[in-house]
Write a structure and sequence with these properties.
8 copies of one chain form a homooctamer. Chain A has about 250 residues and is α/β, with parallel strands linked by helices. Chain A folds into 2 domains: about 5-105, no CATH class; about 115-250, Rossmann fold, CATH 3.40.50. Chain A is built from 10 helices and 9 strands. Chain A has helices at about 1-10, 15-45, 60-70, 80-90, 125-140, 155-160, 160-165, 180-185, 210-215, 230-245; strands spanning about 50, 75-80, 95-100, 105, 115-120, 140-145, 170-175, 195, 225. In chain A, the strands form 2 sheets. Chain A has a 5-stranded parallel β-sheet. A 4-stranded mixed β-sheet of chain A has the order 1-2-4-3, with helices on both faces. In chain A, strand 1, helix 3 (about 60-70) and strand 2 (about 75-80) form a beta-alpha-beta unit. In chain A, helix 3 (about 60-70) packs across helix 4. The longest helix of chain A is centred in the N-terminal third of the chain and has 29 residues, at about 15-45. At the A-D interface, helix 2, strand 5, strand 9 and helix 10 of A face helix 2, strand 5, strand 9 and helix 10 of D. Chains A, B, C, D, E, F, G, H: It holds the Pfam family AIRC.
Chain lengths: ~250, ~250, ~250, ~250, ~250, ~250, ~250, ~250
């Protein structure tokens, strides 16, 4: 341990105070930085980094996939291509690929799933994002209930599922086009709603901008928004919120 | 009457066919133009032009106001200032001014109001636009029911008024911020919904752009949109639609 | 029938009032929701849901297509691919596909077409959207007249068709580029104009944004706008308006 | 109680099953709607509605303020003007007004404050929004720690406060200009970060759009965003998250 | 001739004045419209319509191409594909295709070219638009001088060609990226400058928006702008201006 | 004259060729620059610079105004304030100020006005820009005819003035809101149309952007666009075009 | 000095190694942070922080102004109001205020000014930003030459000043409207050009966006851009660049 | 040499002063232009023009490549395709192609590399731009250190490399998504930071606009920005800055 050594050498007189000062001025960043935060991440989440597969060459992807799997006994990647999946499957036949969400993973079987997150989608076309959120939250150890195709142009479908929605610790609301789902949900529940605009739509939906603006301007309290199509980000944040319920209050 | 005269002169031989042709090539536009359409407008709607008061000097406004009132026995202006109102009131004490919608008018008392238009607003802040729509539709002889403050973040308020909404021939949906009202209404009724985005909101509402995009991207069928804060336009179009019900089918 | 049973059991004393209250608090949403509105839709329009084909897998598409056709004896889909058409044709040889509008359908032969809707296009390049509007309105039982290629840069072409346009209950105005068609039409008719901006154009047309803004800012009264390229939405709303003429006034 | 009565009358035979069915089809919305959700809101949060003061006339404001204070023994308003404050103070001398955040309130003294929320601001100019978030969260019964002026162009200031930040259940990150605070914080903590872009800046900050985009595109996990300058929304959502810690896990 | 006949019948008494009035109210539009303007176009320009080839099927294109060629002895099309060219060439071996500008044409050999238009481009990448402008202007009978690659980041290249530029009746300035060419030229000549922004560039050039804004905001007098990549429009307008020089002053 | 002197000294041998080369490498810019172009401007236009008054202090304005008047015997300023006018009037009682266009000027009485420019406006609200164009063109010696309030929502008004419009050498089309005037005019005339979008409108007109886009995307040939509200720029360019008619063809 | 003390105590045995480790893990950030960087800043620039005066209350401003002046013997503030100036002047009569740039300062008289920075402006309206850049650079000890009103619509004015411009180590190019100055300069010099878009202009200049895009898309090499109207930022960066010339090469 | 000859002829009397004046009025531009600046460029940078390969045909590319290589003994191209590379390699086997940055080059081996530029990237996905910057700067004779993947969501990685970063004369900061890297770096160094937004990201990153806005709004001093993905531009400007250190101070 470096600081330990340094201080011991100062105490023993084998390192001058000037030299120690010079060293300390730079070192703590490095020490804090890489080492401390990395350990921190493992300690608090119980799993390693997630792979953002898009744009990675198959070899590069496979190398990281293998490395993370060997280290953690499980591995999770978003926006994977079919080609990446086939490469992974060849090496690890237990690899699972979800074509809808494009998530690739090897997941431990015995993982407990705590609390409850509800992932809602406005339409069936939004499910590719909703599944990214749901599978992410499940991978991070949360219990997830999916309620899809409850868009606001048929409000009765949402109302029919109100009990299930209201029982969650956190709701993920996934919607494209006009993206009004989050506002309506926000007015019906007393738990945080993570809104995910999707690129579903055409014309003046501007690849998700319309839904994004709707959600950011929500008149309902308790709605916050992540990037367009960012199911992973919503699943991750929902996990952070849901897991708070299981922690001790300080 | 000019065309009458021309034809009579042709018949009488006092105008050559060549001269008549020359004349007809240009004239009908003018004749059609100003005269014909104006008369047409009166015949079909029963009232004259409406005054867009904004930006008009008080003298200019008063002159038009007086002219139209004298011609039609009633007069209607949008976006009037208080100063314009005081000037009109001095001359015509029966002038009525609505501070919320900034509509100024002298209206005949015995006008029948046909059919039914429902004007809904999402919030109380949108009422200045909703009232412009409602008063416009009333001025054009429609029966109007107002249902305000039924925004989607409290969906129960809308549901509680569903019967009234569903009984209209046409619904005007006025909303700012995320503007989701039109979509939800569109899914609950089988009549045309005229959506009016308002400039109500702040930040990423961009003075009504967010609501406009939401409404244009509505996943519900039967929703069409007018300009931001354009209550007059919505009231006018709703009137056109509502009055179809009373007309004969060809 | 569920509510019937519940009330009968309450009357018979086999269900306590407390239990019935508990049940009613949740159920009506579900009952209202799915069941009621669906039936309602059938009752009022005489046809089932329409398929938005884009992005659906051929199998998924074919399943819905078959289901809806079997239930209603006719079926209608927008934005269908040629591959989807071939799959449908193989199973139902009577399937009709319009390459211009990409509409796929099996339509009953003896359907009456009421009232009159005029669908106008500014240019020939806009016809793919205009046909989507026209075929939609026809499928919903309206009589449709098409008047294409009457853009404002040759205003005489529009004026030459004025009689036909003025005889409609509702006009659909389809235009890309600068999209001025709707404004000019709005000034020439006294019926509602549904404006459809199209993505036709290049450069600063921004895939339809220019036409959308033009139409939203129309100086003519009685113009409302749907999404870029949304011929279906315009045809649907025009149908709602046109059908009002045939309904009884309450 | 209405449903109780209805069922009793069905049981007693004074109301036919048909009549009861007719009634139930409509009523539950109203019952659910207004009544149920309102009660629900009180039960779960312990306080009534908040007043959005902007744009309300002083009389209107004062009426609502008085009504809510009388009902709940405390009252809270955002974006209040000085004039509104003076009117409230005249009637209720215990009214408190914070000039920075423009929050007006009468707050119970003995309210417990649970958990821990940290509200950070990038600069001193963002404090007007940060204080809106902090005072909101405090009003809703949360313990709040403020850490201001730790913007990313002096990253050492943030690092110096890392211990305090990492001890929160939820972090509110308030920043204008380039809005990078949320990303950097998101990478340093394992708790949800609610990002609030502010309108602070000039030129290409576009009144907060730059900060909004930065936050929405955050490369850090666990960041979600509310509207520009929406301190209230962030405080409300942080409260929802923080309070989860104190609730029972189902 | 219709009006002739009508008037003769009025004169002869075989058509009543009432009937003639009814007829005249509608007819002149049609007569004016199609017939008059078409003839007008031919009379004033000496050539028929131009084909905008993009998006037209090869058969459709070929039909129009053949029709116009047969009628006028020459034909001109913009944005033609190679496939369209090959189809035209097979039927008319004298067809000429310019790969850079994608202009297809059969042009009369003995056409005089009057006045002088200078077409400038900022870079070599802008030449595809500049050639569209130049060939268009030549087809319409103007003498054109091309001066390419004189962008403002090497201002000496423009200055070296100043004499040639200043001798034109009209200058077409074609530029992408920052599009500053038009402003600099506008300050150096006393003739109208038609500015054409191009889609050349990347990143924040936004496919020509940057150049468009630059040109619209030109601090130089005498600069007006056409759409992004609209070489044809610039060539057409330059032709209108240049040809004024040869006309008689009224 | 400097170059004269330099060459004379070289000839006389009082300046070495090396020194002369050194001098010539730099000087011509200066010589060309300030001096030559200024003279050029006077020679070709017959009048001096125009003052853009906005943002100039009254003293600064008055100094320039006086200087230009003394040099040229006339002077012309755009966007002048009333305060600037009063200052100018005190010194030069013959100063004329037009409140609508905010143009200030002292103009020679005996100036001939050549050719013909027609300035059209869509509405009465656009006249402040149309007058800037008209007065500018008149100041530069052109004959101008004004045709106002002929917007496309009443197309008959434009048609009624067609003869006058078609007789111009150049048309200036001034319109706000949806800005369709230029396209319709462009289809009816064979002379260049300079389109001026105005900031007239509200909501999605975005202070003139809607009209600007409409005009830039005009489907009519022969339309080019200047900046929003830039009446001066349109008047200047129209003058350049109109004056070509009076020049000799080279 | 804290680290010194800590190490001395470790050496002396009065602080245990464990305690020292605990302290060092947190402290260095603080120590590095506030203290070290501040000292660092002083060491390298020879002057303290600059005050961004906008939005600061007069008392708050005066406190900071006084504090910084007392510490450094000079003080510099941007975007100061006249009221702030009067307050400062009352306390420190030697305070200087520049109305154009709104810079307030007390500056040491004997400061050397090294190297050479040229600050150019396109028009006289841009000088308020150019002066902010120039005065900033001078305050930071650079020699500055101002060359104003050399916009590209009169390119000769720029060429006439080429020698002066080419002799600088760094050029600041300040321009609004179309902002082409930076590109033209970038093509004429071989030194870095810092481009500052200004909000000068109207209509489609969008308060500086047009100039910003022009500059970002510059076809010339060696141009980088700061925020709209950010003269201070440009002056600061130019200072960093210019001062490199005086430093030792490693 | 032309001017030499001209002056000699004037001296010898074989050219009249009038003729010489006529000649000088035009010629110097050409002479200055092409010749002088070209020579200048060579003299000051030691290398010829760089090829922007995108959009160039392979033959055209190869011709320029060969020409520049033969003239300078080295050659450098950006955005080259693999096909262009293969063509170049066939002729010049020593051609080097970097697939990441798409830079093609033949570089002299013995080139000295002066000073120090640090090129940082936020993520691994940004390296394609960072390498373009780094290779450009190296080609222009600068010593470059690469520090990649130090994005702000893991701030410790940046802090760990602070010494290396702080030792540069100029820093290039390359980042997509939220682009906060430049601001954080700007606060940690006292040297100019050239910020390069990249198109890396999705959704509301708008192909680099989000990062561009972040960087333009940087709260840190000493940050200026180039176009999205413009690694070449950043490398060029960094070279200009770094090379100042080695120049003499005037």
């Amino acid at each position: 341990m470096e600081i330990q050594e340094l201080l011991e050498q100062v105490k023993a007189g084998t390192l001058s105070i000037e030299e120690a000062k010079q060293y300390l001025r730079k070192e703590p960043f490095e020490e804090l930085g890489y080492a401390k935060l990395d350990t921190h991440r493992k300690l608090r989440t119980g799993h390693a980094e997630v792979i953002y597969c898009e744009g990675k060459s198959t070899e590069h992807f496979l190398e990281i996939f293998t490395h993370l799997y060997r280290e953690n006994g499980e591995v999770f990647g978003t926006r994977a291509s079919k080609e990446q999946y086939l490469a992974a499957k060849e090496r690890f036949p237990q690899t699972v690929y979800d074509e809808t969400s494009r998530i690739i993973r090897i997941e431990k079987n015995d993982k407990p799933h705590m609390g409850k997150i509800v992932v809602c989608s406005a339409g069936t076309a939004d499910i590719f994002v909703a599944e990214e959120a749901a599978l992410t939250a499940e991978y991070f150890g949360n219990y997830v209930e999916r309620i899809y195709d409850i868009g606001v142009c048929g409000i009765h479908r949402m109302l029919a599922n109100l009990d299930a929605i209201q029982s969650a610790n956190c709701i993920v609301a996934v919607a494209g086009m006009e993206g009004a789902l989050a506002s309506v949900l926000g007015g019906l529940v007393d738990k945080p709603v993570i809104a995910v605009p999707t690129s579903v739509g055409y014309g003046a939906s501007f690849h998700g901008v319309s839904a994004l603006l709707t959600m950011i301007n929500s008149c309902a309290n308790g709605v916050a928004v992540v990037n367009i199509d960012n199911g992973y980000g919503a699943g991750y944040m929902a996990s952070q919120i849901n897991r708070l319920v299981g922690e001790q209050h300080e």
